[in-house]
Amino acid sequence: MLRAERIFLLGCLAALFLMGATVGSAQSLENVESNRQAGIILEQSYPVLEKTLVLYDQHELLPDRALFKRDKKDNQRRIDTLLAKAIDILEVSPSYNIRTEIEKQQARIEFLRGEIATLSRERLSAPDKALLGLDNIPFYKTRQGYDAAIADKKNEITACEEQIEQLTEEFIGYLALNGVAIRKDQARQLLNSVDGGDYIALSAIFENIKNLAVQFQYLSSEADEDVEIVKKYYGLYVILLMIADNAQERYITQIDENYLPQLETFEEVAEEIIRSSSENRETHTLSDANRRAEEANIRSAEITLATIARYRQYLRKQQEALIKRNLQVKEDLSTARNTYKTVTLSHLLVEMIRDSSRNFQALMTMEPPPIIPFQNQAMQKEFEKLSLRMSDR
Q1: How many angstroms separate the CA atoms of 121 and 146, rounded?
Q2: CA nearest to 236, candidates 205, 206, 215
Q3: Contact between 55 and 79 (Cβ < 8 Å)
């Protein structure tokens, strides 16, 4: 690492210490851990931010097209690659780890339910009485033995569900610390929705960007006599806005190009089930059992269609809110770019960074996700099933 980079990083880490200190130099364990994490994010992201700023500074000097040297198109491709790398660094957070652990618990529950289904089926042909009073020995298990095994699986499911509840509370608490207040039903839905990971990643990116912006504000005020250093801080602030813009656009695009098309595919399948089952019921003489089965197929497909309609509405609301925020980010980015080009006095830049940092705190706050009003438990379960199917693709 270059000496200048080391000096910059040491200054930023000092800023973290000073900003995190409380009266009497007493800090809570949460503050210590938060500042440690912010320092790690800074150290990981700074080289990428600086490389991006160098390319950004060179961009207008490059030709629009060139055969044997770098042109604007090549340069923009390199900038986009670095912005994507920065997003990958900044999207890491405790909330991401919480969601990952919840997904593990949910997968375990699904596995255990599958085992219970197998044990329940095998129990039907098991003997009532045990040999020598033993209910559960290899290759010979009585119904009582199966009942005990099933009870163990159910107890493990209960333990997993309790762990999920605890993790959900931690998730709500972490979002609250970052300025996002949500209820437990919103948290559950967010953790179970296909775009929940995107929302959590975006909230982490915004929180890390806010922390970096505060650090740049502090350091610029400390170096207000050196116009070149202050201008570099402001340039890095411009790069942070570019990262926010790219992250939001990626989420918006994901909804249009991935989630909504998948819902459309599921919708077509459900409509075909209704059509086929209705036709079979109306044009053939079915036994009572087959008629009940076709009616159940139709009811299930109708629940799927109703849930898809709600799911689509939920994703659209998320997208609309994000597009609105993204327009604000683009407006701030345009102003920041113009300021970076034109302002040459260090004290004016320091004031701009201070004002921009305040605006950034509001701009980079995630809105709570909308809640889908499910009519019954069946729709809630179908929502979770659809989310799993989309996540697996």
Answers
A1: 10
A2: 215
A3: yes
| Full DSSP string of 97-118 | HHHHHHHHHHHHHHHHHHHHHH
371 and 186 Cβ atoms separated by less than 8 Å: yes
Q: Among 29-38, 98-107, 139-148, where is mean pLDDT lowest?
A: 29-38
Q: Does residue 171 surpass a pLDDT of 70? A: yes
Spell out the domain ranges in the chain: 3-90, 201-391
Q: List the structure tokens of 26.
A: 């007493």
Length of the chain equals 393
Retrieve residue 80's tokens.
Answer: 């986009």
What is the tens place of the pLDDT at every residue in 269-281? 999 999 999 988 8
- Residue 119: is its pLDDT beyond 50? yes
307-to-24, 382, 390 alpha-carbon distances in Å: 55, 7, 14
Kindly state the tokens that stand for 247.
């992250």
Q: What is the DSSP letter of 239?
A: H
pLDDT in tens, 178-197: 777 888 888 888 887 878 77
Phi, psi for 224 (deg, rounded to 5): -70, -10
pLDDT digits (tens, 9 = 90+) for 253-267: 999 999 899 999 999
Please spell the DSSP secondary structure of 170-228, one letter per residue: HHHHHHHHTT----HHHHHHHHHSTTHHHHHHHHHHHHHHHHHHHHHHHHHHHTTT-HH
pLDDT in tens, 337-354: 888 887 665 556 556 666
